[in-house]
């Protein structure tokens, strides 16, 4: 699983490092928005909930001590989301119906429990959000043909032979494209995920 890089986390200790905070927002903004909606907030309410979460992250980040285990920041953020959602709906004196019609409070407790499948959903969505962010950042570094070969094999799951046949090239060209994009992806990830 991807986890937030100690390098990015160290940079976030400087509140004046606008680039680090922009990177955090770029990586986590879509994830937070998706979970705000999943937790019942829509439109401007979802924006408000995301803003509440980010305000807590900014305010409490100096207290965050990374225990050097993968997923620590992700888990910390997940707990903040659950607490902010709880406060958000309490302030509005209502609670949305949780997925499957379950009690909203229980749903939030499940989100906070790292052993619960709901927390695993968060982890998977986190990994997808980080990967999407990284892929978006590097896509422009490649010719469209290279990117297409990479996409077919890595994202779509085609074999090198299938991708080569569809693109009118050789399997070796597919392997080269895949290798180049993955190398660039690893380099880009070094500053964001570790």
UniProtKB/TrEMBL annotation:
Endpoints of the signal sequence: none
Pfam family name, one: Sigma70_r2
Keywords from the named record: DNA-binding, Sigma factor, Transcription, Transcription regulation
Positions of the RNA polymerase sigma-70 region domain: 28-94
The keyword Mitochondrion belongs to this UniProt entry's keyword annotation: no
Membrane-spanning intervals of the chain: none
SUPFAM superfamilies: Sigma2 domain of RNA polymerase sigma factors
Keyword Transcription: yes
InterPro entries: RNA_pol_sigma-70-like, RNA_pol_sigma-70_dom, RNA_pol_sigma70_r2, RNA_pol_sigma_r2
Domain of life, source organism: Bacteria
The name this protein goes by in its record: RNA polymerase sigma factor CarQ
Biological source species: Urbifossiella limnaea
